[in-house]
UniProtKB/TrEMBL annotation:
GO terms for biological process: proteolysis; signal transduction. Belongs to the peptidase S41A family. InterPro entries: ClpP/crotonase-like_dom_sf (IPR029045), PDZ (IPR001478), PDZ_sf (IPR036034), Peptidase_S41A (IPR004447), Tail-specific_protease (IPR005151), Tail_Prtase_C (IPR020992), TSP_N (IPR040573). Residues 1-24 form the signal peptide. Residues 247-334 form the PDZ domain. This is Tail-specific protease.
Amino acid sequence: MKLKRLFYTLIVIVLLFNSCSAISGADTEKKNKLISKVVGYSLEKVHYTGKKLNDETSKEIFNEFIKNLDYNKRYFYKSDIENFKSKEEELDDILLNGNFKFIYKIFEIYQKRLDEASAITKEILRKDFDFKKDEKIQLDGDKREYSNNKEELKDYWRKYLKYRTVVRYLDILEQKKSKKEDIDIKSIMYEEEIEQEAREKVKKAMNRFFKRMKDMDDNRKFEILMNSVAAVYDVHSSYFSPHAQKNFDLSMSGKFEGIGAVLTESEGNIKVVRIVPGGPAWKQGELEAEDVILKVASKKGKEPVSVIGSSVTQAVKLIRGKKGTTVVLMVRKPDGRIMEIPIERNVVILKETYAKSALIKNINSDKKYGYIELPKFYHDFNDKEGRKSSEDVKNELLQLKKENVDGLILDLRNNSGGALGDAVKTAGLFIKEGPIVQVRSKDGEISILRDYDPNMYFKKPVVILVNKFSASASEIVAAALKDYNRAVIVGSEHTFGKGTVQNLMKLDNMLSFQYKKYKPLGALKVTTEKFYRITGKSTQYKGVSSDIILPDMYSKIKIGEKMYDNSLGWDEIKPADFNNNYFLKKKNLVQLKKNSLRRIDTSKQFKEIEKHAEIIRENRENTNLSLNLEKRYSRYDEIQDLIEKYEKINLETREIEILNKNLDSIKNKEEKERKKDWYENLNNDVYIIESTKILNDLVK
């Protein structure tokens, strides 16, 4: 029914545009006018919120648009913004009428300010920087005001370029240190030759940056505007230009050769949203969600190109390449470390995304447990006999039952979701039958997705491991089994909080033959539905809270939907009718929490993790950074020492015994190495170790 209503809504939009007179001349401006109308009307009619394009929405679009152009307030003056604001309530009319004169004027001034900034940069970088001077720079645009005049702006650029040079200087120092372990860093802390080298590298990077910005074509400018419109509806709605749509289609097919990472534009940076299971970055292991990509060297030994201020499309162009070649990413970690990460380009190794299990035991107990890792909810819709995550999990459960395990750990950490039907069936493996999730449409219609299989494929205690990157379908499974009192949820304070459904609307399909000359028009990804637990509570925004919270590196910062200003909020609806009379009782949970907390308080690993979390919090919140070289290096060195200490302690952890390795049965050498690494990681994983101890308490 919901799909029918969405279809009828689209028919109305199609008829609306087909009733217009044919437009003559297939030029870019008329094409953009057409796209703007279709996008505007589609968001109004189809988006879950039903938000109208009016004066208030227009103000939001204006703020988003300006932020997308100049988040860090490095280009526009305060007077520019005040002049622009005189028309901030007219953007809704501009979009629906297709008269972009005001937008062109903003871009004209933007280009002028870029040229001025480029000239300022060249002037500043001709002179040496004084690294001994103790001054600071505020890097968070939300904590700064626009400059009142050229002198203020010039002073900001001086500090910003000094900051970039300090980062380069520290990078050179680290390279020298890695080549010669006994080097005395203090002896070269203020070396003129290194300062010149660092400044020259910054100069080259800035020249490339301003050239790229100057070469921004009209299509990219229009894409920024359309994405500003979509973003005010919610964080997951977006416009794809024809080129961006092609990239999106390739990424969904998993057939392009890149690194296997989902990227987004965030505050003028390219940030890693998640790592694709089975992809090159996942296999390499160093690139992680929340990393900010600073530079890309398209091959080893080649001068890296800055991607600060780039679009995702521009960054992806640099990252992609031939299979077997290596791309080197310079990234900034959430704790402030700068790392160079070499990744060999390849396609996603599908086998690595499949569910896999191990028979494990804690060396301090005689109990044995099953462990299942599920990186994503996959389903091969093109092949009836193809792999399905729910079937694979069922098969792994049946194998573990033969081993007479005493309990199970289902690992959904970093599982960003996937096939909804498989999530419902996976949850159903652990209950007799009943509702799993409720889905609410834009018009308020609610459908309940159920498990109809009366068989309960695993009846013993279950721990579900989650973190802040467990999202969407994985949250549905965790929430359902929590609400049925069927599993103990262990991990981060809460999961990601993505409880919405998006549909991809190809704009070409919404217009009749008379508009053929304007195609391709791109696509619109729009939020159309929302998930609710069987208790009636939404998984959106708040996510699923853990029954037992374990410290993690991101515990003290916002991750997930809570990070975004334009996320849809949390709410609740009427609960579904379900029976939660399973083994887990409230009094059990209270004791389990107490026991776990005692262990955490005496754990060296968790203590180091909490220290790391504090550094990440400080780094995220303290955006007013010192430009004194010695202070910056001291802080950098402190972080490095902490990481090395944590990694050393982690390697000393050997409380898990794998009972069914069978490595000799694997003939493929590369596959055998991957499995060996996987077992090694299980041995050292403090979260799995604590999960076995929670299961020990449960089965007593």
